Amino acid sequence: MRRLLEGRTALVTGASRGIGRAVAEAFAREGALVAVNYCGSLGKAQETKERIEELGGRAWLFQCDVGKAQEAEQMVKAVIAELGRLDILVNNAGVTRDNLILRMKEEEYDQVMDTNLKGAFLTIRAAVRQMVKQRYGRIINLSSVSGRLGNAGQSNYSASKAGVIGLTKAAARELASRGITVNAIAPGYIATDMTAVLPEKTREAITAQIPLGRVGIPEEVAAAAVFLASDLAAYITGQVLSVDGGMYM
Ligand code: NAP
Question: What is the rounded CA–CA span in Å between residue 182 and residue 171?
Fold first, then answer.
């Protein structure tokens, strides 16, 4: 049976750990060649590459802070030079700097917006030139349930993830005529390093709000990314797919 992403090339930002790693692995399992972006975790990124190679796939590493325009441009150029084309872009790189509004420092706000929202914009801007030339592209942006519902203590993060939804819809409208689809995934509570830092009490309180009664795993988000990146989703653009156990409905 033909795999869903056979021969496609994909760039996954923040693929050294967590959801990004799971997406990179799932793409490789479906036959894609994968560019693994990381920022600070070289060792973890190498592990992602090794895991992909164990699956019989191929991966390349690209270090870059997606929030810096020049770095994002250079990374996308290097990916295209190495892999030949760029079919799929997953804007997954993300950070949290949680604080109450009264205590939130300007740097905490800026760091989150720079990586989560500006980083997605910069990477899309860099990738679109090639995708327009190809008249083909699949862009998937990681939003969050926090961007849809809001979350106390996460005004910066919620704003960045709501922004990602606006960016997704605007880009979807702008690029549709060029054969490029743009969609977002809004995960709920997924077990990764990002959520491991939360106190046990907070985790219990969140779990109590999940209709399916458990936290999610990165592979469950990766499955949605495979679908949106594949030709099965050719007629879907500008959408936000929740993978959250029913938190937002
Ligand atoms: P994670 O385990 O903390 O991993 C974050 C990833 O982002 C790492 O690979 C990290 O790379 C990368 N990254 C951070 N800053 C970067 C930058 N400036 N440039 C490039 N890469 C950068 O996070 P996660 O839980 O997998 O989350 C992945 C995405 O899903 C994020 O956008 C997050 O907001 C979203 N999300 C997560 C959840 C959840 O419950 N986990 C829920 C909703 C949405 P290095 O380690 O190499 O620095």
Answer: 7
